[in-house]
Design a protein that fits this description.
Layout: H1 7-20, H2 26-33, H3 37-55, E1 58-62, E2 67-71
Antiparallel strand pairs: 1-2
Helix pairs in contact: 1-3
């Protein structure tokens, strides 16, 4: 496991991934950010609230894709 990122930095990285990626895989993120599964889930809960309040979209776990994604997908401008 890598050295853990600060909470703020990890949340910003996750936010950016949700903006640009089709899905986010729990294990890959935990390894990349050096965080535990419970910590990852807390970060997702924080981002779920943020996306719902600011954009009206939900952050869900999609079993068919085996990863987290936004529903509906958010059309961010690049």
């Amino acid at each position: 496991m890598k050295k853990p990122m600060t909470k703020g930095y990890a949340l910003l990285k996750l936010y950016e991934e949700f903006r640009t990626e089709e899905k986010i895989e729990l294990v890959k993120c935990c390894e990349a950010y050096g965080i535990s599964v419970p910590t990852f889930r807390r970060y997702v809960a924080t981002l779920r609230c943020f996306f719902m309040e600011t954009h009206g979209v939900d952050l869900i776990y999609d079993y068919s894709m085996a990863g987290y994604r936004l529903e509906p997908p958010l059309p961010f401008e690049q």
